[in-house]
Amino acid sequence: MARSVEDIALFLQAIAGPDHRAPAANTESPAVFAGSLDRDMRGVRVAWSPDLGGLPIDPEVRSALADIPDTLSDLGCEVVEAWPDLSDAREIFQIQRAWLFEMSSGPLLDEYREQMKETVIWNIEQGRDLAMRVHVDVSRKQARLFHRVGQFMANFEFLACPVTQVPPFSHETEWVSEVDGVQMETYIDWMRACSDITVTTHPAISMPAGFTEGGLPIGLQIVGRHQADRSVLEIAQAFETSTRVVDRIPDILL
Fold first, then answer.
1. 3-state class of 135 per DSSP?
2. Pairing with 99, which of 75, 120, 189, 223 sits 20 to 30 Å away (CA)?
3. How far is CA 48 from CA 67, 86, 162, 193, in A?
4. How many CA atoms lie within 13 A of 27 on its CB side?
5. So what's the pLDDT on residue 254?
6. For residues 87 and 148, is the Cβ–Cβ distance under 8 A?
7. pLDDT surpasses 70 at 251
8. Helix, strand and coil percent figures for the chain, each rounded to 5
C-alpha cells in the first residue's frame, strides 16, 4: 500500500473514520493518524510466533525472520514466544470466502463459465453448496475466535509472525501446492499466515523484515489489538527506523 509507515498513516488519514454504511468501521477520527508516530517501545509486551502455532513455513522464511525476537528486544520490547488459538480460523475463512465468491461472482459463472479459472469455479461452487446452518455455525465460531484472540491480546499489545509462509515465487506458478513438504489441500491454504489473522478482524501490517539467500524480500506481520490501528503503525515505525530493511529492497521490487 505504501513505501513507508508514514505513508500508510497519511493514507489512513484520507480513508479512516466512522461511516454509517459500515457499522464495523473504526469510530476514531482520521486525525488519530496525524502527527509523529515515534513512541518509546520499552516495556511493550510482544508475542512472537514463528509459525502461528504449527503452520508449515518454508525454511528460508524461518531463517530470514530468525532475528526478529532480538530486533524487537533491542527496541525495548518484552518478547515472549506465544500465539493465540486460531484452530477455527481456516474453516471460518474458507466458508466465508466461498460464500462471498458465490454472492459476487455466481452470476458470472452462469454466463461465462468457460472463461473462468478452475480455482474460481471451485470456490463459487463451494459457496453454492453451503447450507444456512453452516453459515450460522461459522458465525458462532468467529465470535468465539474473536473473544479468544481478545483475551490473548489482553496480555500482549502485539503479535509478531510471518506474513507469508513461502518466499516470493515465479508468476508462472498459479498457486503454491506444497509448503515445507506439506501438501496444501486448496489453492488458498498456502497463505494461512494472512488469512488466519484476517478472520480475527484485528489490525495487522506487513513489514519488510529480511531476505532469502537469493535476495528476495521476506515480510513480518505485526498484529495489534482490536481497532488499535495507530499503535500498530507506531511499532511498525519503530521497527522500520531501527532496521531500515526497506532501504535494501531493489527499486524494481518497489
1. helix
2. 223
3. 11, 15, 10, 13
4. 3
5. 53
6. no
7. no
8. 45, 15, 40
Angstrom distance (rounded) from CA 122 to CA 115: 14
Q: How far apart are the first and last CA of the chain?
A: 10
The DSSP secondary structure of 192-231, one letter per residue, reads HHHHHHHTTT--EEEEEEEE-TTS-EEEEEEEESTT-HHH
Give the strands of the sheet with 78-81, arranged side by side: 78-81, 45-48, 158-162, 217-224, 204-211
Nearest to 212 by CA among 174, 252, 248: 248
The tens digit of pLDDT for each residue in 10-61 reads 999 998 888 888 877 777 789 999 999 999 999 999 999 999 999 999 999 9
Q: Hey, what's the cell of 61?
A: 522464511
Q: DSSP letter string over 93-134?
A: HHHHHHHHHHHHHHHHHHHHGGGS-HHHHHHHHHHHT--HHH
Residue 212 cell numbers, joined: 532469502
d(CA 56, CA 36): 38
Output the nine-digit C-alpha cell for 132.
Answer: 444456512
C-alpha to C-alpha distance for 123 and 96, rounded to whole angstroms? 10
Q: Tell me if 95 sits within 8 A of 138, measured CB to CB.
A: yes
Q: What is the pLDDT of residues 176-204, one digit of tens each?
A: 999 999 999 999 999 999 999 999 999 99
Q: Which residues pair with 208 in a beta bridge?
A: 219
